[in-house]
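Running this now, will post back.
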Amino acid sequence: GFELCGTYDTTNGDVRECAPLTTVDRLDAFLASLGPMHGKKNASYALRYVANNSASPRETALAMLLCLPYRMGGYGIPMPQMNCRVDLGKRERRIAGRNYLVCDLYWPEVRLDVEYDGGDHVEVERMAKDSMRRDALVSMGITSLSVTKQQIDHGGSLNGIAHVIAERVGKRLRYKDPEFTRVNMRLHRELLGR
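Update: finished.
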C-alpha cells in the first residue's frame, strides 16, 4: 500500500523515484465500491495503516514500526503526513536557502518532523544542509528529529525514539513486555529482513 501510494518503485530490485500510482483515498473508494468479496475486510483493515507519499522503503518501514498497533509490533503512534511540504517564511528562506522544506514524517498538529537519515550524501555537505534545514524549522517552531538506518535496524535504539515521538504527539505507550518485544522483533525481521 505504501509503495502504491508512494513516490518510489522497487519492482526491478532497485529503488527509483516515480509518481504515486494511487492514493489512500482512491484505494478506500475502490474498496467501498466493491460488493462482498473475499479479502475485502482485510484490505480495508490494512489500508488504515497506509499513508500517501512515502519516498523510500526505509521511510515506509519507519512509519510502520512507529504506527502499527502493538499487537502487530508497532508503537501505535498516530500516522504522520509523509513527505509533507512546509512553506518557509522570509526569515526561514534566508536560513535554509530555499522556499520550502519537505519533512519525511510530519505531525503538523504538534509541529514535529522526523527525518530518516540514510547517510547517502557527502558528509560535510550533508551536515551543512541538515544544519540549515534544522535551523529554519526551529525558527518556525518545528522540532526536527533524525533517525538513522542503524537506529531503525536496532530495535532498542528505535524504542527510545518512539517514546520521544509518542510523548510529543500525546500518546502514552502502554505495551506489555515480553510479548511486545517478541512481536516488535518479528515486525523488524519482516520489514528489514533481520
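The radius of gyration is 18 Å. More later if anyone needs it.
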